[in-house]
Design brief:
eight-stranded mixed sheet; three-stranded mixed sheet
């Protein structure tokens, strides 16, 4: 069974449906049946079928699974919760609402900044607050417990504002990979904070107007970045940019997003999605006369706007508040998928100037056609209830529209407050025969994908090929791959940011996109990249450095060893280093081999007279040697060993605190890898001088300045 068929059967098939086309007919009939006249019902059965057939447009997964069925499930993908009341009753009422939403099939987003910091006094109770991070675990447990109608676990986005006193605990919350497993987390930053970072100013951590602490803004920014670099979380969302570009700035404030952050939403907001499969609009693929069919695209956009507007009327809602909010504002999120695959079919490398120009034209067409279509629909059905002509036309995003469309809105109103949202189209990309997700490049021409089996609750792995690549091989039966098949790790992180910046300009909600980084991407470049993105009107940013966290996509080349270990020669060159600790001395021998003109680490031996250490030293030596077999650049080991702290806080040498023997070994590894040319001598694998492990609380938040060291987390300080 192919993976598209497997996904359809496990997630979206209903009743006696035999093919995906049967599913399409179910969706079409249900959506057209709410049209007011018999003539319209007949017409829109035809129009909606033209829209959905052959995987041209795929609604969000909740729509495909639930529309036209007898299941009492929401057709919206996700929801945002209202601000949490800072009380036990308020917190658990929110947990209850979260559970209701998950049972309906939706994910949730919530900002925890309304909860008082840990160790704060609880008024009138005499108790001590445990803080927002601790209560996130309650939400996490609920999410693990509640299962939706199709055996799908819910998902959450947890946000904490950058000025909350518990922000450091929040940043570190997912360093244990077994913690908050049902959450994505993001720091809610502001332009004010970014300016403080740029100016190297102090930043106040406060709650309800009370300042609890001050921290250097650049130090706090560094903690966010280091965690994102090492653990792929937290992401960041810029609340200033989100609200500045919100079409409804005049009647709502946004502090949260859906779990994948493509929809910033107000309290009681609903996320309604659908995506165009761009590969279905390519005429003459892989030929010099290949082109995009804009006329068909425009025609189907008009149908898509109406299709999703009908879904708003059909869908059940978790509570009355969500129904009222959505029907007052009628948000839609029409996006695209298959961009990377489509560009290959047009013979355009993803990161080429020509590809950016085509992408720009497609996104502009989507935006302009959707807004004009919604304005035409308003002439027929009326504008959304919260529409205020003058204020709406004065919003910063609407000002970007062509004058002709703004004039049409001024005359006829508009049916939907928002229309464009670019989601990470995971499952629906698969049932469309594995086109590239959202606006991402082709992940890999061939890779392994994990799919949740609803019967066993376990992930199954599938080998899949990109749609365009498979199509090319069927067309030409060639073994070589043209250079216009650009994959995720073929483009630079800056290229990822440029496409995100472009897409964000034409998107009224937001864009969900992962910026992929190679494992050895320098941290100092990472800092510059992040700041550039945040100052480019990008509403949010998520990064994934290869190897920092296990994902559901595995490049085929990642599943096997990249390097084959040769037989050990009779004689090897190497270096031996000595570490002296208060307890014992350790001798570290590192040997390497020559591959051409390059030296590659081959093995490590660690010896000591301390018999109590022999077992872990032997295990560590074998483990590192095994990594040497597989990795050309094993420098990531250094970061992992440096963060280990001994129960007694380590030891001091030459005025410097050493957290542990393992941290000492990490320094030796770094020195050795520089010596043999694996890493450059002038660069460090991490900003270890900037942040150390606090001997008081154990957080990686200990920094030195002007001869004194202090902890950003607990306040512990020590001056030399």
């Amino acid at each position: 069974m192919s993976i598209p068929e497997e996904i359809w059967i496990k997630k979206y098939k209903f009743g006696n449906e035999q093919t995906y086309d049967d599913t399409v007919k179910r969706l079409v009939n249900a959506c057209a049946n709410i049209e007011e006249t018999e003539e319209n019902r007949r017409d829109y059965q035809t129009f909606f079928y033209e829209l959905l057939r052959d995987y041209r447009f795929l609604p969000g997964g909740r729509i495909i699974a639930g529309l036209g069925t007898d299941m009492n499930q929401t057709l919206f993908n996700c929801f945002t919760l209202p601000p949490i009341e800072d009380s036990i009753d308020g917190i658990f009422e929110e947990v209850k609402l979260n559970a209701i939403i998950h049972s309906f099939g939706g994910g949730t987003g919530v900002n925890f900044s309304t909860l008082r910091p840990k160790n704060d006094k609880v008024k009138g109770k005499g108790g001590i607050a445990s803080g927002p991070v601790s209560f996130m675990t309650v939400f996490d447990t609920e999410t693990k417990t509640i299962t939706t109608g199709n055996s799908r676990k819910g998902a959450n986005m947890g946000i904490l504002n950058v000025d909350h006193p518990d922000i450091i605990d929040f940043i570190n919350a997912k360093h244990n990979l077994d913690t908050l497993t049902q959450f994505n987390i993001s720091v809610g930053i502001t332009d004010e904070f970014l300016n403080a970072v740029t100016k190297n100013e102090d930043w106040e951590l406060k709650f309800s107007g009370k300042v609890y602490n001050k921290i250097n803004a650049r130090d706090l920014w560094g903690l966010i970045l280091k965690s994102a670099y090492d653990y792929a979380e937290p992401g960041v969302i810029n609340l200033t940019t989100i609200n500045k570009l919100n079409n409804l700035y005049y009647c709502e404030e946004i502090t949260a997003t859906n779990p994948c952050s493509e929809q910033p939403l107000p309290p009681y907001g609903c996320c309604l999605l659908g995506s165009f499969n761009l590969t279905k609009f390519v005429i003459n693929p892989f030929q010099d006369k290949a082109q995009f069919n804009y006329s068909l695209f425009k025609k189907l956009i008009e149908y898509a706007v109406r299709f999703l507007d009908n879904v708003i009327e059909i869908s059940p809602y978790p509570t009355e508040e969500y129904r009222v909010n959505q029907q007052n504002k009628r948000r839609e999120g029409i996006g695209i998928m298959g961009l990377g695959s489509m560009l290959a079919m047009l013979k355009l490398p993803y990161n080429s100037p020509e590809a950016l120009e085509v992408t720009k034209e497609i996104l502009k067409t989507l935006r302009d056609t959707a807004y004009l279509s919604s304005s035409k629909l308003a002439k027929e059905r009326g504008s959304f209830k919260a529409f205020d002509t003058e204020k709406y036309l004065n919003s910063n995003f609407i000002k970007r529209l062509p004058d002709s469309i703004k004039d049409h809105i001024k005359t006829n109103g508009i049916r939907n407050s928002h229309l464009i949202s670019i989601a990470p189209t995971g499952s629906i990309s698969l049932i469309a025969d594995n086109v590239s997700s959202g606006i991402e490049p082709i992940f890999s021409l061939s890779y392994t994908r994990k799919v949740l089996d609803k019967e066993t609750g376990k992930f199954q792995e599938y080998e899949v090929q990109d749609y365009a690549y498979n199509l090319y091989r069927n067309y030409y039966d060639k073994k070589e791959t043209p250079d216009y098949f650009t994959t995720t790790y073929d483009i630079t992180p800056k290229d990822h940011i440029e496409i995100l910046k472009l897409a964000s300009y034409y998107t009224d909600s937001a864009v969900s996109k992962t910026v992929n980084l190679p494992r050895d991407y320098p941290f100092k470049d990472f800092d510059s990249l992040f700041m550039y993105a945040m100052k480019s009107d990008i509403k949010g940013l998520t990064v994934y450095r290869e190897g920092s966290r296990e994902g559901i996509l595995l490049r085929k080349e990642d599943t096997t060893a990249k390097f084959t270990r040769p037989e050990r020669p009779h004689r090897l060159e190497g270096f031996t280093y000595k570490i002296k600790t208060p307890k014992s001395s350790y001798y570290i021998t590192l040997n390497h081999i020559l591959e051409g003109n390059k030296r590659r680490p081959f093995e490590i031996f660690i010896n000591t007279r301390d018999s109590s250490s022999i077992h872990w030293i032997t295990a560590l030596s074998r483990l590192i040697s095994a990594i040497f077999m597989r990795e050309e650049n094993p420098s990531f080991i250094i970061d992992q060993l440096r963060t280990v702290v001994e129960p007694n806080g380590g030891y001091w040498r030459d005025g410097k605190r050493i957290p542990s023997v393992l941290s000492d070994i990490a320094d030796i590894l770094e020195e050795y890898l520089k010596e043999i040319g694996v890493i450059e001598g002038e660069e460090k694998t991490e900003e270890s001088e900037e942040f150390d492990i606090c001997p008081q609380c154990g957080h990686m938040t200990y920094t030195k300045s002007a001869g004194c060291a202090h902890c950003l987390a607990c306040g512990y300080s020590r001056c030399e």
